[in-house]
Structure formats: structure tokens, C-alpha cells
Amino acid sequence: MTTVWFSLRKRLLALLLGGVTVAWLGTLVFSYLDAHHEVDELFDAQLAQAAQTLLALASHEDGDHIEDLGDAGHKYQRQLRFQLWSADGRLLLRSQNAPESPLTAISGFSETSTKSDGHWRHYSQWNNEKSLQIQVSENHRIRDELIGQIAWRLLFPALLGLPLIGFWVWLATRHGLSSLDNIAREITQRDPQQLYALTPDAAPVEIRPLLEALNDLLGRVGHALDNERRFTADAAHELRTPLAALLAQLQVAQRARNDEERTQSLDQLQTGLHRAAHLVEQMLQLARLDPENGLPDAGPVSLTAVCEDVCAELGKDILARQIDFSLDADGEGSIHGKAEWLRVLVRNLLDNALRYTQQGGAIRVAIRQSADAATLEIADNGPGIPAEQRAEVCQRFHRLDQTGLPGSGLGLAIVARIVELHGASLQLNDSPFGQGLSVCLRFRKD
What we know:
Layout (H helix, E strand, L loop, with lengths): L7 H52 L7 E2 L11 E7 L4 E4 L13 E7 L3 E9 L5 E8 H37 L1 H11 L19 H47 L4 H31 L9 E4 H11 L1 H6 L3 E6 L4 E4 L1 H18 L5 E8 L3 E8 L30 H11 L3 E6 L6 E8 L2
Parallel strand pairs: 1-3, 8-10
Antiparallel strand pairs: 2-3, 2-6, 4-5, 5-6, 7-9, 10-11, 11-13, 12-13
């Protein structure tokens, strides 16, 4: 999949300049239309006033002859023309540039446009006695020239101002986004091992959520790396001893003087290999759990079914050790989780209980279900764990020294991690048998 990158600075410039340009163009169009309307109103008023003046003058004069007003004395005068008509249709008076035919046949305002004559605006009005009609026309080019000049004077500041505004917007966005460049520079100059929080001198409020999320990510990555380093160091330390013991047993088997010594050395070598394999398996399980955030492919799981499966797998060991074993469930113990990890959890707890419970001891598995939670309890009557050490046994490679039994010190660490992934709680209590340990897990129902 192709990743599409875009520039925030370019996007801001485009949005700001585009918005300013559109707003300015809208203002220009509105101003132009408004000026056009006002110019038309003004010229129409002047046209009507000229017609009424001429009509008033003509009403006080008697005559039936045609007169010409002579040449124009002003550049705009050539753009005006008029006619005075009698009620019987006789042309009484006209300007030099006016034709002998009526300018318009419509009373009031009207317009005509021809290729030969051009575009004219007309006004026609009768006097009160309906004996005289005045028709005044104005060439529309006067209005067009004036409106064009107004439009140019509106457009000129925009043509000059838009580049200045664009330059200012560019400077403002560059300065406003400079803090992002500073943060990027700080991250780029860091060593990969420097995962402490970013604390820029000045950061806009808008990017603080991004900084907080990034700092949270850096913290989680740092925590994960610390766990990996600690796990690698602990694993190297824990594997060094069994590997050295295996090498020693191999050397003993190679130097055996007879078959009996060789067989005994090989048996011890096999036992050591089983222990090393168990340790590696536990370490791989824990390493597989560490990177997961949440539960992929989680779904409804029955704790009772999981416990029954694990107990069936360990049934041979339970019978061999003559353990008084019981599984008590008052329901399915339905929870939301991942069955694979829950089987690992139950197997580790039962494996610990079998390992530390003496021959002929007792182990009880109980599942209780309520409206908001399901509880799993595994209790034994083994040596137990002192109360002051229960907070430490869930740490990696932590083992109690008083038992003398083989183990990796990872079983309860794996259990604690699976419990954490399921959002459950883990408690180590005194066993109801009087001695031993009770592990109580409480899973909330979503």
C-alpha cells in the first residue's frame, strides 16, 4: 500500500490564501454589482430630471416648428439626445444627434440596442395636459465606462494587496509551525536509546495531545525494552547453569569406565535436558506473551472446560502421585478471553501444585460464577509460600530456596502476565487445608 504524504504548511497556505482570495473576489463582485446598481439609479434619476426640465420649459413656449440645439459643448453631451413631440405626432424639437423617428414607443424607462446605433437608455414622459411628450436618451457607454473605472479601482488594491497578504501568510505559517520543526529536530538528534519524554521549550496547545501520546508511546517502548534487556540478562544467567551441568554430564559419560557409569551419566544428562527444555519452553511462552497488548482473537471461554482439559492431560501424574484431587464447578464459568493462554495458565498452576505437594497430598480446583465475575481457585496442602515472599514469586526467575525441587522460576510469572492480559486479578492466600497455598483468580465479565 502506498503512503501518501502531504505538507501541513502547504495545506495551510492553500487554505488561507484560497479563503482570502475567494472572500476578496466575492467582495469585488458584490461591490461591482452594487456600484453598477447605484450608477444606474443615479443616471436614471438624472435622465428623468433632464426630461422633466425640458418638458417644463417646452410647456411654456408656443411654437410648431422644429429646432436644433447645435453642436455639443461637452464630451458627454454627444452621448445625450432628446425629442419633443406633440399630441398629434409632430416632432417639435430635437437635439442635433437625435433622429427624426421616435426614440422609444414606451413610456417611462426603456432600452434599445442595435449594431448601427449602439446601446441607449431611454426615458419618455407626457406633460399633465397630455399635449407634449419628451423623450430623452443616454448612450449606455457612459455608464459602462464609469462602472469599468470603478471596477478597476476596486481590482487594483486586490492585485497589489493579495501578494502582500500571501507573503505575510507564508511568514506567519512558517513561524507558527516552527515549533514542529524544533520537535522533529530534537527527535532526530536523539540516540535510539534515549526514550525519555519530549519536553520542548514551547509547544502549541494544538499539538500537546500529540506530544502526550508520543511521550506515552516512548514510555511504553522504554518499558518494553527494559523488560527485554532484563529478560535477556536473566535468561542468559539461568541458562548458563543447566548448560554447564549438561556439558559436565556429557564429559562424565565420555569418560565412563564401564556401562553402569555411562548409563547413570546418560540418565542424569537426560534429566538435565528435560529441565533445560522445560526452562526454554517457559521462557519462549513468556517472551511470546510480553509483546502482546490485549488479547487477539479473544472470545467466550468456559473456565470449567479449560480446567477439565488440563486435568485430563495431567491425570496420569495425579494418579501416579496418589493425589486426592477434586474439581468443583458450579457452572461453566464463562468469561471473555483466549482459551490457549488460559490453558497455559491452568497448566502452570496445576503443575506447581503437583510439584510442591507431597505424595498422597490434596489438590482442589474450584470454579465459582456470579453475575459479574467468575472465580478460579486452585488450592493444595504443600509447603506453601510465606506471606512476606508472595509479592516476589510472580517475578521472573524468582524461586524459593527451601524446596530443593527443580524449576525455572517462570511459572507464576507467566500466570501473572496472562492474568494481566485478561484484566483479571491474582491473589495468593493461605490454603483452606490448613497448610499450603491457595491461588485465587477473579475474571470480570464484560
